[in-house]
Amino acid sequence: MVGEDEAEKAAASDAEDLEWLERFKSGNRRAFEFFVKKYQRRLFRVIYNMTSSKEDTADLLQDVFLKAFRSLETFKGQSKFYTWLCRIAINKTLDFLDARKRKPVYSLETWGEGGNVADFLMPGENIPAADRAVLLKELQEKLNEALQQLSHNHRTVVVLFEIEGMSHAEIAKTLQCSEGTVRSRLHYAKEQLKQSLSRYLKGHGRTEV
Amino acid sequence: MEEPKFELERLLKAKRFEMPDEAFWDAFDARLKASLAEEKQPRRVSWKQYLGAWLRRWSPVAAVGLFVFGGVCHFSSRFNAPHLEMCFQPSDIRSCRSLSFHVSPSLGVVKSVLKKNLASTDGDRFTF
After folding, report:
1. Do A62 and B31 touch (CB under 8 A)?
2. Cβ within 8 Å of B, A 18-47
3. Phi/psi class of residue A113: alpha, beta or left (left: φ > 0; alpha: ψ in -120 to 50)?
4. φ and ψ of A76, to 5 deg
5. What is the pLDDT of residues A58-96, one digit of tens each?
6. CATH number of A1-107
7. Using N-to-C axis directions, what is the helix angle for A179-196 and A129-149, rounded to 10°?
8. Domain ranges (residues) in chain A
9. How high is the ipTM of this complex?
């Protein structure tokens, strides 16, 4: 039932996108703002988790929306609107990462003051607030470092699957590769992440006392 | 204290919580609106900008073309010197003069040919 609900929501969302797309194509340029509002946070997550820099993400996100605005007339609706938009974002980000010579500077976003994320990560754990905040900050840094150690292609797949929650098929469409390639990249990337983060993972590394 | 341990997937999902505050989005929206407004306006280009862009685009091609053209004229005048000499008979000088200046940038060759021909004419002098 939950799956059906989600599928219905997704279908309604796609239909809504097409409706606004028609408005845009019929000359209502302000209709584009609907897409900006709807997708800016999702795209931010994708780009930010690939670059680990808030400033670079802001610039890239601007470029993505401008590019989408210029080429929206040519969007034929052969794929979902978000898939198309996400492909623009991924291509822009990969170009940027290839050109970026300097070492990435991590500009970490707060994890909602540690409140929500702590409940998400450590439900029912009886840890003092101060220790919890320190642990969360450390985790966040190590996680970003581990992600940045992955190759661009592997990082892209991890971000889209694990963080964005896209399916293998959607990722394959977005990256224009086979589902097998997506699965194998994901497997390899997760093995690498497990090695980098073994200290914090269940069933890996030693327990520190 | 024993550190808590996590599932990798759960750790990665926690990254969904990383999101900038509303001030960031306000600034972002304002900047994007300004850029989109610029996109919506048809761009007005002055004739100076247009000419500048045209020159930037075509000047290398024009330079190469001129160079090739000059080279062709130069070598054709060298190898076809007898033909040119025939063309510049004293009686034809008046009609050929302007043409020769236009056609061949290698004036040295043309001048020498003309002078040679003119030396045999009576009192009809041209200055260069």
Report:
1. yes
2. 29, 32, 36, 40-41, 44-45
3. left
4. -95, -10
5. 999 999 999 999 988 888 888 889 999 999 999 999 999
6. 1.10.1740.10
7. 130
8. 1-107
9. 0.81
